[in-house]
Amino acid sequence: MLRLFRKYNGLLAQTPTEVTQLLLRLGLATPFFLSGLTRWDGFALSTGAKYVFTEEFRLHLFGLMVPFPFPLATAWIVSAAEIVLPILLVLGVLTRFVALAMLVMTAVIQLTVPEGWAIHITWAAMALALVAYGGGPWAVDSLLPAPPAGRRERRSARKQISMRGKRGDA
Questions:
Q1: Coil, strand or helix at 64
Q2: Whose CB among 12, 39, 65, 149 lies 3.0–4.6 Å from 153's, allowing a Cys bridge?
Q3: To the nearest 10°, the Cα dihedral for 156, 157, 159, 161?
């Protein structure tokens, strides 16, 4: 039994990370995009979306049920984000930032619908994995050049060089 476990454990460990990252992107994008589709009536915000943001949705904060601030503006922003962010995520454009935005949206959704925690935690886990590991090699992000070394890294390198000179190591 232990030998069988080790054999399959080794096979599972060989799952390509690019497949995992692609599936994370697709898995997180799907529920947001489908929700976004229900909020639009052509290019106009649906009456139902306006209604739920003004009359039904409440933030559950410290035992209080607080209405959304600027409900119509919030409805427009959220409805647009639920369409645009999933598209960017599937393509792998600005993956880490898009996943972070979707993580924030998930937190707000959790505050709005606290009984949905079981699904929200899976969205949060997918978003956190994408924030931490990026979109993978099958993302548009991977085609972009790596960012140059930051100021902190350059300063640290200069400091190390100047310290060598003071100690007489040069």
A1: strand
A2: 149
A3: 160
- C-alpha to C-alpha distance for 81 and 86, rounded to whole angstroms: 8
Name the token pair of 74.
């919030």
What's the angle, vertex CA 58, arms to CA 53 and CA 63, rounded to 5?
Answer: 175
Distance CA 119, CA 4 (A): 33
Question: What does R_g of the chain's alpha carbons equal in angstroms?
Answer: 22
Give 10-residue mean pLDDT values along the chain (170 residues).
Answer: 80 87 98 97 96 97 96 97 98 98 98 97 98 96 81 60 56
Structure token pair of residue 144: 């972009």
Query: Whole-model pTM?
Result: 0.81
